[in-house]
Specification:
19% helix; 7 helices; Immunoglobulin-like; binds fe (ii) ion; Purple Acid Phosphatase, chain A, domain 2; 2 domains; 6-stranded mixed beta sheet; single chain; alpha/beta
């Protein structure tokens, strides 16, 4: 027990000293430069998408789910993360409250994702007032629409909900041709150019979904696309074939619709309140095939997801989580991860002193996951480190789990200590012991 404060201090020091210049929040005006360097030549990579992490009102705390989801993302160690907007409560926030709420999120990003670059998309809550937007820009950058290359992809971030207070007379928010004051071209014209800037595959990010699952869309309020023609103009700009997916949040439910080979995702929430029915709209999960494209929540089962007057498209689901996207050459795979699917628990060492350390990596998901963000605090070892992964059979015999774990990164973490980042693959529904040893 006596060792604990020293161990905690060492861990805090290790974490604080490890935030890299090319990781943590990448400001929007730096995105292009970052992507050109970091993604150079990559044809295989992963990125995570999270959305709607806002607290339940001005000055309230972030949900513990935010910490949990960022932690699980950090264990996976994707190449980067994109937050689809609504980081703060916004409405009714003073400038100081907005700054405080962004600072709370930034602290989590710096602490939990010190080697993972993090980008943001402006949501309606982030632009609810001039003060909220000022605080957003201080945290995530001044450009409200921007793009960057990464590997064989191009990533385009749009502001799907310019607030009415920013609109010139006679215009309103939505995918209109507004300018954020930082570009030569207004957004719609700029987007057309950005889409044509190259990249074998194109991914688009905007807070408000072009094809919402909650009806009646599109409409007034904050659903973004004020009219169907406005939405159709945006969709028509998306290059056919190259555009793989459009990612949105805002609705606090998970939903996906394929239109002309483009997947339009609405992500579940990253900690904001649930919206859609948690059992799926009426009948779907009872094995009754939907007769209509639009279904009411079943009031006896889930009270219509809390919105008894609304209709939800078949398949819309109120759920917390984040989306993990894998690009492998021409192939793209999407995996929605709910909280507590992944776990990492240290069972030995990890104190910067013991030459051996062990962590138990758990995967409660349906697919194998590559953990690239598991770190060990180890004594410095000029000869390096070796790692192995094992699992136990039903008869408790040990079996090696391949591929053999790799040492990805060794960084100094105080006198005589290193932080060692290891990559290991964990098959579905399995707990794996990951051991590391100083050579
Ligand atoms: Fe929103």
């Amino acid at each position: 027990m006596k060792k604990r404060p020293v161990f905690l201090l060492a861990l805090v020091f290790a974490c604080l000293s490890f935030v890299r210049a090319d990781a943590g929040v990448i400001r929007s005006e730096k995105a292009d430069e970052w992507g050109g360097m970091a993604g150079l030549g990559k044809k295989s990579f992963r990125f995570a998408v999270i959305s709607d992490t806002q607290p339940l009102g001005p000055g309230r705390s972030l949900s513990p789910l935010v910490e949990r989801l960022l932690k699980e993302i950090s264990w996976l160690g994707p190449d980067f993360v994109i937050h689809l907007g609504d980081v703060i409560s916004g409405y009714g926030d003073s400038l100081e409250e907005a700054r405080h709420e962004y600072a709370a999120m930034k602290e989590k990003i710096d602490r939990l994702l010190p080697w993972v670059p993090f980008f943001a998309v402006p949501g309606n809550h982030d632009q609810a007032t001039p003060g909220a937007l000022a605080a957003y820009r201080e945290t995530f950058g001044s450009l409200l629409y921007y793009d960057f290359p990464y590997g064989n992809g191009r990533f385009v971030v749009l502001n799907g909900n310019f607030p009415s207070w920013m609109a010139p007379r006679g215009k309103d928010y939505g995918f209109f041709n507004l300018n954020d004051g930082m570009h030569v071209l207004p957004m719609a014209e700029w987007a057309e150019e950005a889409f044509s800037r190259g990249g074998k595959m194109l991914f688009v990010f905007l807070h408000t979904p072009p094809f919402p699952a909650y009806t009646p869309p599109p409409g007034r309020g904050t659903h973004g696309f004020l009219t169907a023609s406005n939405r159709d103009a945006f969709v028509a700009l998306l290059p056919k074939g190259r555009t793989k997916a459009v990612f949105s949040g805002h609705e606090h439910l998970f939903y996906v619709e394929d239109r002309g080979g483009i997947k339009f995702f609405t992500l579940g929430t990253g900690g904001g309140p649930l919206s859609g029915p948690v059992t799926g709209p009426a009948g779907v999960n009872a094995g009754i095939p939907p007769k209509f494209n639009l279904l009411k929540g079943d009031p006896e089962v889930d009270q219509g997801g809390g919105r008894p007057k609304g209709l939800f498209k078949s398949g819309a689901l109120g759920v917390f989580g984040f989306l993990l996207v894998r690009v492998d050459g021409d192939r793209v795979a999407y995996d929605f991860v709910v909280p507590f699917t992944l776990e990492v628990a240290y069972s030995e060492g990890n104190d910067g002193v013991s030459p051996r350390a062990r962590a138990v990596l758990e995967n409660r998901g349906r697919f194998a996951q590559v953990f690239k963000g598991v770190t060990f605090l180890m004594p410095a070892s000029p000869a390096g480190y070796r790692a192995r992964a094992t699992a136990r059979n039903g008869d408790r015999t040990e079996v090696e789990i391949g591929p053999v774990p790799e040492i990805l990164e060794v960084s100094p973490a105080g006198p005589g200590k290193n932080l060692v980042r290891v990559q290991a693959t964990v098959p579905p529904a399995m707990a794996v012991d990951l051991e590391i040893e100083a050579r």
